[in-house]
Design brief:
This protein has 341 residues and is mostly helical. It has 14 helices and no strands. The chain is globular.
Length: 341
């Protein structure tokens, strides 16, 4: 009887902790969202921001807040959520912290397609987003098929993904070297991962993709946590591992490819968010939604730092790269000591 009470007490304690952390992260996210609208070349009060958001006309403020800052904030929020949830999903399915979409070539495939469209085909706008999304999905399918063989292998997928990423990075470098020098700055801005120039017309499609595919992933989170225990045990517990894995991978790939097509590859968000969420609530808890909030916080905070905290303005991807690179090195050192790489 005591044992049952202790187990229940432990469960309730973890649940309360998860709820507290979720509320805290939501508050931080809301604060950062408002700061994205308040801070700029000219600062506005919270009252002014709210009045503009509810449709009141305020001279000077409407354009700055509604046309420039609001699309930037919404893109950062949605892309951060998408990258984080997709990254956590990949890391959980493959049971490897290195199995992040920006490490195994998924983000890079969309980047390569976008650079080709911009520098070779001279395309811009929506057509670049569509082509880069399609190419990202196709390359992801190729990586999955090559790693499948007779039996699906997590390690094989990671190794093939890293190899594909290396080839795609070489292709990007080749295109950049041979491109018209006047077109290169636009491609470089896009490759660095940036919220600059985001327009409101890009937000509705991003919002729809985020809602549909993140909801699919969250619905399957219970099965995802079971699959983390291993293939054999998951099958024993009644999980159709092949079907669930395919649905989760397709959903994750789609939101990664689409997000990347909008803002470019924002480095390390998908890599960092899952491990941070697990540190906060533990590995046994459901943490996809929490990782999504962490991803949004990282993107919004990094953009504020890149735009206003330093002497020179930097794209958000540069700041997230500075944050993520040390963690990647530490992780590689730990895995090497354990014999994991």
């Amino acid at each position: 009887m005591k044992k049952t009470i202790n187990i229940n007490d432990g469960y309730l304690k973890r649940k309360k902790k998860t709820i507290f952390i979720t509320i805290l992260l939501l508050i931080i996210t809301i604060i950062l969202c408002f700061n994205m609208l308040i801070i700029g070349k000219e600062k506005y009060s919270i009252e002014t921001v709210i009045r503009v958001l509810i449709g009141q006309e305020i001279e000077g403020a409407n354009f700055a807040i509604s046309v420039i800052r609001l699309p930037r904030m919404l893109a950062g929020l949605l892309v951060g959520i998408c990258l984080a949830i997709a990254g956590n999903t990949f890391q959980t399915i493959l049971r490897n912290s290195l199995a992040s979409p920006d490490v195994i070539g998924i983000s890079t495939s969309s980047s390569a397609a976008a650079v080709f469209c911009i520098l070779v085909l001279n395309y811009s706008g929506v057509i670049v987003s569509i082509i880069s999304t399609i190419f990202g999905i196709l390359i992801s399918i190729l990586i999955y098929m090559l790693s499948k063989g007779n039996v699906f292998s997590n390690n094989r997928l990671i190794l093939i993904g890293i190899g594909v990423q290396t080839m795609l990075n070489a292709l990007i470098s080749y295109i950049m070297v041979n491109a018209n020098e006047y077109d290169v700055p636009e491609a470089l801005r896009w490759l660095s991962g940036s919220l600059n120039g985001i327009q409101m017309k890009s937000i509705p499609s991003l919002l729809i993709v985020t809602i549909i595919f993140t909801c699919i992933i969250l619905i399957l989170e219970k099965h995802l946590k079971i699959m983390e225990l291993g293939e054999d045990l998951s099958i024993t517990l009644g999980v159709n591992t092949n079907l669930v894995r395919i649905i989760l991978i397709i959903s994750s790939v789609f939101i990664i490819a689409f997000s990347t097509s909008v803002t470019g590859p924002i480095a390390f968000i998908s890599f960092l968010s899952g491990p941070i969420a697990k540190k906060l609530v533990g590995t046994g808890s459901k943490n996809l939604f929490i990782s999504g909030l962490i991803g949004a916080i990282l993107v919004l905070l990094s953009d504020l730092i890149g735009q206003f905290a330093l002497n020179t303005r930097y794209p958000v991807g540069v700041i997230t790269g500075v944050l993520g690179a040390p963690y990647l090195l530490v992780l590689l050192i730990k895995l090497n000591k354990k014999g994991g790489v």
